[in-house]
Known about the structure:
Layout: H1 3-20, H2 35-54, H3 57-73, H4 81-109, H5 120-124, H6 128-137, H7 142-153, H8 158-165, H9 169-191
Amino acid sequence: MPESSAERTVERTLGHLRAVDAPDEQTDPGMPVTLEDLYRVHRMRLVRLAILLVDEAATAEDVVQEAFAGLHRNWAKLRDEAAAIGYLRTAVVNGSRSVLRRRKTAREYVPPHAVTARSAESLAMLSTEHQAVVNALGVLPPRQREVLVLRYYGGLSEAEIAEAAGISKGTVKSTASRALEALQRAMAEAQHQ
């Protein structure tokens, strides 16, 4: 599968998930946005973003809950709704990184186990091709997974990814390129097993 094919496959899979997770309700543009509005409209999408990063639903929900708690603590400092959503997205990425660091530390002291906790309904909703992409994402290094998930699931630009992940735009480009190559290899290996 050529690299452009891997990119199209990732874009199709994560774009499909993004469309499924699009907020059903929007807030009234004339009314001030409340924390409750943001929670109701954006919570599930942020949970799915975290699931793609940490590969565990309960942990992802904890990460998102912490992001909203942090937003609540900093509510008075925010400029507008867009700043609040950016804050939440960055908090979810940073919280996911912390989870992965803690997991790595724990694995150094405890033998690793091969449990991947995806919900049955989340996998049932995906086609075989989409499942292969999500499984391959799980074997990528955290930063590569972050960049691909933020780009293709989050629908973010390179600048937005750089801001959310705390890296430069050039690093976003090179990481995305390496991630697509690694994803292509992982999918090819999975097909041959």
